Amino acid sequence: MCFFLMPLTAVILSCIFPRLLGEGDIRTGLILLGCVSGGQASNLFALLAGGDAALSVVCTLITTLLGAFVTPLAVGALLGSSVSVDPVAVLRSVATLALLPLSTGLALGMILPKKVLVRRVRPLCPNVGLAATLVLVGGGASGLSSDPFVMFSSGLLMRAVLAATFLPLVGGSFALLVTWKMMKLSDKSIRTLVVETFSKSPTLAYVLARKHFDSGASSVPAAAMVTLGIIGAAVASIWAGIPLKETDEFPKYEGES
Questions:
Q1: Contact at 8 Å (CB) between 19 and 158?
Q2: Tens of pLDDT along the chain (257 residues)?
Q3: Is pTM beyond 0.70 here?
Q4: Reduced to 3 states, what is the DSSP secondary structure of residue 8?
Q5: Closest Cα to residue 80, out of 92, 72, 91?
Q6: Do 20 and 157 meet the contact criterion of CB atoms below 8 Å apart?
């Protein structure tokens, strides 16, 4: 759903609101945000929402690996006719930004003794993660308001915030409908997959936009660094207050106890 439902949602939004979200850099940033892999914040949101933390980590890992190849193809297919796109350059950027840190972490996990990881490294991870998140959000906010008067007067700021808000809300609603009505999964799995679907990686989208597209395209991912955190925390808080339904992951056949 990460690489099908969200890009489709971005295209639908740009078509439904052509003057608001379907023109120029806003459309480019919106579709680029829809095409990137899931963000690491989804693991925390899924845990707080009462979802399956292990499933969330697996989904994030898989989308990160697939994103190195799917993101350039999706961006080229959806934006190639309207803006100049170099899929090979996007592929190199995604591999450097996503696969290199992931491979480094996995390699260190295999090389370093477990006692060192558990006793010395693991206690530092929450604080390091929080500090990194604050830096990324602050960087996104500063990138969004590099020239606030021009962005506000031109309406670019409002359109960027609306795009970064509509995409996770609408895409998450579609994911809820698909997992609840069509896939008929357990409540725990539904919460996890919905969070994984709408929680994109705005940092990756921001860097790709700054490197491969016009500077205005980065306004949507920059805004998403803020809006996704707010929406994710709100969804997690709402679901945390709703008890999980005791349902089976798969329906039982007649004769099974």
A1: no
A2: 788 999 999 999 999 998 888 788 899 999 999 999 888 788 888 888 888 988 988 888 888 888 888 888 888 888 875 556 666 777 777 667 666 776 777 777 777 777 666 677 767 766 676 676 666 666 656 655 555 544 555 577 888 899 999 999 999 999 999 988 877 788 899 999 999 999 998 888 888 888 888 778 888 998 898 899 889 989 999 999 999 876 544 444 444 44
A3: yes
A4: helix
A5: 72
A6: no
